[in-house]
Write a structure and sequence with these properties.
Layout lengths: L12 H5 L14 H12 L10 E7 L4 H12 L6 H4 L4 E8 L12 H18 L3 E5 L4 H8 L5 E10 L11 H6 L7 H4 L2
Length: 193
Amino acid sequence: MDKPAPSDQPIHPLLAGRWSGRSFDASRDVDLRTLHGLLEAARWAPSCSNEQPWRFVLGARGVDDAHQGRWQAIFDGLAGGNKPWCKDASAFVVTLATRTFAASGKQNAWAWHDVGAAGLAIALQGHARGVVAHPMAGYEEADLRRSLDLPEDLDVVAVWALGFPGPADALEEPFRSRELAPRVRKPLSDLLL
């Protein structure tokens, strides 16, 4: 489903076309090579002092038992409001941030920003490959930490649902209406200080 951004100024079609869809085609799994391509794009995101504070946990259906187990663990760790619409996602990526600079041990106040840039790279590379990438903040961090055995020195930043787009009418309400609603953004005049 195409929902190009109704922008006031021309923007690149890759940016205009990317959006966070909620409907996934349950009959199609994203192959491991494509998923690794999304993470490769994230690897090349910009970061403060080239620290590259991002870390990823990938869970995917249709790959192997380890990836399937991580897919289930991530799904189980989602907040209840996200489970109905992302149950058909082919894969999940948990994005994590290291808290300190490797060389100095000092706090990296820009780590979450940099992980956000890596997340956008996942979304753009996904869109270029026909894969929907939808970020979520609705997860149970303690459950993810326990089930994925995450190190304490990493912050959980977001969970991304990935998959090929599916039909909006396959979603239950209120997700169907959200999927079909026009895309809106605040005007640039409200954002410029």
